[in-house]
Specification:
- The protein has 483 residues and is α+β, with helices and mostly antiparallel strands.
- The chain is built from 15 helices and 24 strands.
- The strands form 7 sheets. A 7-stranded mixed sheet has the order 18-19-17-16-22-23-24.
- The longest helix has 26 residues.
- It is globular, with a radius of gyration of 22 Å.
- The N and C termini lie far apart (63 Å).
Length: 483
């Protein structure tokens, strides 16, 4: 009997991945295609939905060389979350480029909207600080600046969605317009207490609820797809999860106090807080939904770092300090131990727990002897310091925070970074056996596999606590000086 697979689609910031995963939670085969990062002189970051759809079709053709249509029993989706898409309900045609989650072009719009009352309303209903980071203000910007979006809105032909909704719509040929809570909760339009779109929130941003997708459980039947006509039958779409929540799922962080750190273009530090919201969600972290399975909702606290892997890309493509990300570990390890250079990576401001959208990036504390190695080390250290600050905030808010850090993503093989993470936080760091955790998590959800992956290696603290505390204090002092 032919082996059966889940086809997982990972629609990430940098590209699209198609991965075949078997019922033993093992990756059988994977392929990917990058898409262009469209960045203008103002630093706005966009994606071309036409390009992404064309890439997806090419990937499906490759998949069907590796496995027959009869071997693929269902499809599962994971995706970059806060990115904003708009398309025609009648034709499925994109109305403008996607505004990527990193993009802060709606900063002035957010400033104009923000009053103490609106800020508190949004925080209490969504668990999120009002910010250009989240999707609602990006859609509001489209409504003010994109003529095709304005026309579709007037004519009742507008679909607003995060990347999961757009993928579902295209894959089902417009028959299904749905999303689920792990994505919807990041838009700032869903009330996380009710699990529904909120009239007051939508009104705040000038968005009609009719233009938004239906919210269903994360393990729902999202529709059927024939992979753009490549199959002679339809397969069901059985799982959708935002990329960070999908990674949490794959790690098996189903209990209160368990958490993970994902290193991607950005970084997500996500803590499972169980089935109950905190007494107060008006704090400096994001309170979100992990997933909703069979009508049962689990919540998380999350801190997001805008620039993680993107910092390394910046070192390579903008500063030309490195030729490949793999160099950074040895360069950092060889840096002058007495150098005190710090990078504040506020290329798009700083998110949780600082919420400093206007802060600019800077290398500080340099001397005449600071060189490439020291700048690389400062860049890696900046990620660790931000993660540590988020964990410190967790300890003040959450009923339980475990001592074990589950890690995944492209940077987990950076030995300097992982050891520094263990040293600064004083915690054990467990490295995922595979880097494709988000794809695995959504596939496991489709198969109802409530287990976790194993670790390939472990790091434990070796740095003296006094040294770690000194480094953290230096970082915090620079944040205060520059804010």
């Amino acid at each position: 009997m032919a082996k059966k697979y889940i086809l997982a689609i990972d629609q990430s910031t940098q590209g699209t991945k198609a991965i075949l995963i078997d019922h033993q939670d093992q990756i059988f085969w994977k392929t990917s295609l990058p898409h262009k990062q469209l960045i203008n002189n103002q630093g706005w970051v966009s994606h071309d939905l036409f390009e992404i759809e064309a890439n997806l079709k090419k990937l499906f053709e490759e998949v069907l060389v590796q496995a027959s249509g009869d071997q693929i029993e269902s499809l599962a989706i994971t995706n970059q979350r806060e990115s904003a898409a708009a398309w025609s309900r009648s034709t499925g045609t994109p109305l403008c480029r996607t505004i990527v989650w990193q993009d802060n072009r709606s900063t002035e719009l957010v400033k104009a909207l923000t009053t103490p009352t609106i800020r508190q309303t949004l925080k209490n209903k969504t668990g999120l600080e009002i910010s250009p980071y989240f999707t609602a203000s990006k859609w509001a910007w489209m409504l003010q600046n994109e003529s095709a979006v304005q026309k579709a809105n007037r004519e009742g032909d507008l679909c607003f969605g995060t990347m999961d909704s757009w993928l579902i719509f295209q894959l089902t040929n417009g028959k299904s317009f749905k999303t689920e809570p792990s994505n919807a909760c990041r838009t700032q339009l869903m009330n996380i207490k009710s699990g529904r779109w909120d009239d007051e929130l939508c009104s705040t941003f000038g968005i009609k609820i009719e233009s938004l997708p239906e919210i269903v459980d994360s393990n729902s039947h999202f529709g059927g797809t024939n992979l753009f006509g490549l199959l002679d039958h339809e397969i069901p779409i059985l799982s959708v999860l935002g990329d960070s929540q999908a990674a949490l799922f794959a790690h098996g962080c189903f209990d209160c106090g368990e958490f993970k750190v994902t290193f991607g273009t950005g970084s997500s530090v996500m803590l499972n807080i169980g089935e109950n919201l905190p007494k107060s969600i008006d704090n400096k972290l994001n309170t979100s939904i992990a997933w909703s399975l069979n009508g049962k909702t689990s919540y998380v606290l999350e801190g997001n770092i805008n620039y993680a892997g993107a910092c390394i890309t910046w070192l390579k493509d903008n500063l030309h300090l490195i030729n490949s990300p793999e160099e950074t570990s040895s360069l950092a390890a060889d840096a002058n131990q007495d150098d005190q250079t710090v990078l504040v990576p506020a290329f798009a401001g700083l998110g949780a727990p600082y919420w400093l959208p206007d802060m600019k990036a800077a290398f500080v504390g340099m001397t005449a002897t600071t060189g490439k190695k020291e700048l690389v080390r400062a860049t890696l250290n900046s990620l660790v310091y931000q993660i540590n600050d988020i964990l410190s905030a967790y300890s003040d808010l959450a009923p339980k925070v475990n001592d074990e850090i589950h890690t995944d993503g492209g940077m987990i093989h950076n030995t300097y970074l992982m050891q520094q993470l263990s040293d600064i936080t004083g915690r054990q760091v467990d490295i995922s056996t595979i880097s494709e955790l988000s794809a695995l998590g959504t596939a496991m959800n489709a198969m109802n596999h409530l287990t976790g992956t194993t670790s390939s290696s472990t790091y434990r603290p070796v740095m003296k606590r006094s040294i770690a505390d000194s480094l953290v204090n230096d970082w915090i002092s620079w944040i205060r000086k520059l804010s």
